[in-house]
Amino acid sequence: MSPQAHSMFGFPDARAFLSRAIDTQNGVRAIFPEWKGAFSFRMRCYAFRKRERALNRKVYEPGQPMHNATAHDGLIFKLEQMGDGRWAVAAYNEECDAMERLGIDVQDIE
């Protein structure tokens, strides 16, 4: 596994992925040819969020909502194996219903 950047600005890929996940209702996926790449990217997302939280501790005063928090804290990351053997990192809001995330209309189910 490669060493992680010491600054949150060393994670432009994770930052873009998390921003897209927040902006969509159903979440997003990043596809990788093997498990190792997907696992590493998920760890980069966790590391970015950790560094963003540390920065917000310095920027915001205790008691403010963003002190020790990030806009991405509501995201859940999951590793998923695709049918063709590839792996995906899925990111979606924890408030997102599983049926919505899979794109299933509840009215279609009898």
Describe this structure in words.
With 110 residues, this protein is of the alpha+beta class. Helix 1 crosses helix 2 (35-59). The protein is built from 3 helices and 3 strands, in the order αβαββα. It has one domain (8-103). A hairpin with a 5-residue loop joins strand 2 and strand 3.
Structure, briefly:
The protein is α+β, with helices and mostly antiparallel strands and 110 residues long.
How is this fold's topology laid out?
Layout: H1 12-23, E1 28-32, H2 35-59, E2 75-81, E3 87-93, H3 98-101
Antiparallel strand pairs: 1-3, 2-3
Helix pairs in contact: 1-2
- Supply the helix-strand structural class: alpha+beta
Summarize the main sheet.
3 strands, antiparallel
Order of helix and strand elements from N to C terminus = HEHEEH
Number of domains: 1
Q: Please give the share of residues in helix.
A: 25-40%
Q: State the total count of DSSP E strands.
A: 3
User: Could you list the spans in which at least 5 consecutive residues all have pLDDT below 50?
Assistant: 104-110
Strand order of the largest sheet: 1-3-2
| Radius of gyration over C-alpha positions, nearest whole angstrom | 16 Å
Q: How far is it from the N-terminal to the C-terminal residue, by CA?
A: 47 Å
Strand content: 15-25%
Tags for this entry?
110 residues; alpha+beta; three-stranded antiparallel beta sheet; 3 helices; 3 strands; elongated; disordered C terminus
